[in-house]
Automatic annotation (TrEMBL):
Subunit comment: Homodimer.
Pfam families: TetR_N (PF00440)
Name assigned to this protein: TetR/AcrR family transcriptional regulator
InterPro entries named in the record: DNA-bd_HTH_TetR-type_CS, Homeodomain-like_sf, HTH-type_TetR-like_transc_reg, HTH_TetR, Tet_transcr_reg_TetR-rel_C_sf
Residue ranges of every copy of the HTH tetR-type domain listed in the record: 12-72
Keywords assigned: DNA-binding, Repressor, Transcription, Transcription regulation
SUPFAM superfamilies referenced in this protein's UniProt entry, alphabetically: Homeodomain-like, Tetracyclin repressor-like, C-terminal domain
DNA-binding region: 35-54
Organism, as annotated: Nocardia bovistercoris
Transcription keyword on record: yes
Domain of life of the organism encoding this protein: Bacteria
MF terms in GO: DNA-binding transcription factor activity; transcription cis-regulatory region binding
Length: 190
C-alpha cells in the first residue's frame, strides 16, 4: 500500500484539524481577532505547521469559505437554497464562524485580490442554485412571472439576512416560519 497513501491520509487529517480549529477560532474572535497565536492555540499546532499547509490567514479563511460553499452548493443543487437556510437554523454551530462574513464584506470592498478569490468561491453556490431554480421552473413548480435571476437575487438577499441573524446570535423561533413564507413566495400558485 506504499508510503504515498499513508502520508496523503495524514495530510488530509492534518488539513481538516487545521480547518476545524481555525473555524472555531474565527467564530470566537472574528477575522481580525483570530491572531496567529490564537490560531496556534485553537488548532494545537505551531504557526510553522499551520502555514506549511496554508500560505497565510487569508488562505485558511478562503479554504473554510470554500468548504462551506461546496457543502451549501451540494444541498442547493439537490434540495434548493431554502434547505441550505433550514440547515443553518438546525445546525447554527456549523455556521458560527459566519459572523466573519460581516468582516468579509469590508474586505471585499478594499482588497481586490481577496475579492477575486471570494467571487470564485461564491460562484459555485450561485451556479448550483440557478441550475436548480431553472429545473424547478421547467417542472412547473416555480412561479414563472419573475425572471430566474430575480428569484435568485431575492433568495440570496434572504440568505445574507439569515447569515447576519445567525452571526449576531438571533435565531428566534419564527425564522423557520419565515423560511416557509419565502418558499411559498417563490412557488407557483395552484
Amino acid at each position: 500500500m506504499g508510503f504515498g497513501k499513508v502520508s496523503e491520509d495524514h495530510l488530509a487529517a492534518r488539513r481538516s484539524q487545521i480547518l476545524e480549529g481555525a473555524r472555531a477560532c474565527f467564530a470566537e474572535f472574528g477575522y481580525d481577532g483570530a491572531t496567529v497565536r490564537r490560531l496556534e492555540e485553537a488548532i494545537g499546532l505551531s504557526r510553522g505547521a499551520i502555514f506549511h499547509h496554508f500560505r497565510d490567514k487569508d488562505a485558511l479563511f478562503l479554504a473554510l469559505a470554500q468548504e462551506d460553499a461546496e457543502r451549501m452548493a451540494d444541498v442547493a443543487a439537490n434540495q434548493g437554497i431554502v434547505q441550505v437556510m433550514r440547515d443553518m437554523l438546525t445546525h447554527p454551530e456549523q455556521f458560527n464562524w459566519l459572523g466573519t462574513r460581516l468582516e468579509i464584506a469590508r474586505r471585499l470592498r478594499t482588497d481586490p485580490e481577496f475579492r477575486a478569490s471570494w467571487t470564485q468561491r461564491s460562484a459555485e453556490l450561485t451556479a448550483a442554485t440557478l441550475a436548480r431554480l431553472e429545473r424547478r421552473k421547467a417542472a412547473g413548480a416555480l412561479r414563472d412571472d419573475v425572471p430566474t435571476d430575480v428569484l435568485l437575487g431575492y433568495l440570496d438577499l434572504v440568505l445574507d439576512g439569515l447569515i447576519a441573524r445567525i452571526a449576531s446570535g438571533h435565531t428566534n423561533e419564527n425564522l423557520s416560519a419565515v423560511l416557509d413564507l419565502v418558499e411559498a413566495s417563490v412557488r407557483r400558485k395552484e
